[in-house]
Amino acid sequence: MGRKRRRQEKDTDRMPQEKRCNHNPPETVPTLRITSINDNCLEHIFKKLEFIDLLNMADSSKCFKNALNLAFASHFRGVKVDINSQFVRINELFKVTYKNNMLKCGTGDCTISIHDGSIGLKLLRCFGHLISNLSVYHCDERFQCKVNRYINNYCFTSLTEININWYPKDLKNSFPNIEIVRFQDLNCKTLEAMDDLKTWCPNVQRLEFIESTAINSCRIGHHLSHLQHLKIRLNRGSFTETGLKNVENMLQMNPQLRSLSVSGYNITANYFSSIRSHLQSLESLSIDCRKRTFFNTNDVIQLNALKTFKIHFVDEFCDPLPKIPFVFNQLDTLSIKACQIRIDTNFIHFLKTHRRSLIKLNLSNWVYPNFYPFYGGNDSKFHDAMKLLKKIDMHGCQFSVHQIEEMLKKCKSLDTFVFTPAMDTDLETIRKHIDTEWFIVERCFGTVKIERQTLPAETN
After folding, report:
1. Count of CB atoms within 10 A of residue 134's CB?
2. Confidence bin at 189 (pLDDT 50/70/90)
3. In sequence order, which residues have a C-beta less than 8 Å from that of residue 12 and are 6 or more positions away?
4. Contact indicator for 184, 137 with CB cutoff of 8 Å
5. If pLDDT is split at 50, 70 and 90, which confidence band does 88 have?
6. Dihedral over Cα of 315, 317, 318, 322: its sign
7. Which of 20, 184, 290, 460 shows a CA-CA span of 20 to 30 A to 399?
8. How much is the average pLDDT of 238-242?
9. DSSP assignment of 153-208, as one string?
């Protein structure tokens, strides 16, 4: 019996697998460079970067400038930038915070706080043309010169609000879009005048001096003739004769002024009586003063255009509110803040005089809270004077359940009432006793807000 014949192997069986495959060579796929991607696509990519990475990218690459500008503007347009070069927190050279911990692109609800001078200068250099609100504090003279140079080169068209603690007298460019200038802790011992303020901020409308003793030493206001708002606050000091004269000069040069806020220990009603002719266009007046020294005149100061009047007594003086020496024709908002609000017949007479126009009343205790503000039967007189009021805020003033019921019953036009319950357990009792048309909102520190619910209009 013969042997079985072996199958003859073909040459193709011995060939490697890759050689047996008969396919076309792969086509070369063109590579896509990142520089060839359009700016809109790059913007979506760069928006994923953290703030410091976006800043470093802009500082190191010029070819992506347009896309980086778009990414920065979509997140941080209208952002407030705070640069504080001398206050460095450990492991926190910069911080980006959002209102309510939520990012709202382009709404101005974001703040970039920078505690490193080099990062602040890098931000001005890379994105200064997109920054509209800039604050720079606590920097030495050398850093001030750098900031002046950077905002002069990169921010002169974008800034609308600037907040600094030195006077930038070496700026070369004018800033046509700045409307708000705020000097914080400005101390100009060597500066004689600020007459060139109009040169570098020709369109400024709001000027503020916050704790700035420069108002008491420099010559200010001789060329500022287009202000709409003026705020001067010396919460820890008094005005000198030069300071009071500066205020009067600015009022005289700006008869169109709409709002004035003044704070100082030696501000008196007699001073306002002497400058009353310069206050006739005011719509808002805010005064921080000492109660013991403010009411030193028997004159009646009439301001026909005023709509909002706020006065804050900074001394711990608990006597009843004295007679207010002002008379208004269009007053709709009155706010008084004191260590303890005590209402007597003088104040009730003032309320009756203005009850036809008055809509909002704010009476706040700031040192001795939880005191009932009425005594001697003045609560019923107060109700009669306040029948047309829509909003009453008596923060820190204590009311019982019965007193709250009387307030809601007598003040027929009332929509909002803020108060402090006499006892913590009164809140549930109030819920049961008031009508269903009222809605209770419990606020912080035991303060309660009651609002009248607006019912939807009936449809036919």
Report:
1. 25
2. low
3. 20
4. yes
5. very low
6. negative
7. 290
8. 89
9. HHSTTT-SEEEESS--TT--S--TT--EEEEES---SS--B-TTHHHH-TT--EEE
pLDDT of residue 280: 94
**End-to-end CA gap in the chain:** 113
The string over 263-273, giving b where at least 16 C-beta atoms fall within 10 Å of a residue's C-beta and e elsewhere, is bbbbbbbbbbb
Q: In Å, how far from its chain's centre is CA 3? A: 105
Distance CA 278, CA 103 (A): 44
Long-range contacts, stretch 31-36, CB < 8 angstroms, 24+ apart = 35/63
CA distance 16 to 19: 5
What is the Cα–Cα distance from 61 to 448, expressed in whole angstroms?
Answer: 55
- The strand ranges marked E within 53-119 are 80-84, 94-98, 110-114
CA distances from 311 to 278, 291, 336, 369 (A): 19, 10, 5, 18
Q: Which amino acid is at 39?
A: D
What gap in Å lies between CA 296 and CA 300, rounded to an integer?
12
Q: Which of 286, 285, 324, 289 lies closest to 304 in space, CA to CA?
A: 285
Q: Structure tokens of 455?
A: 């019912």
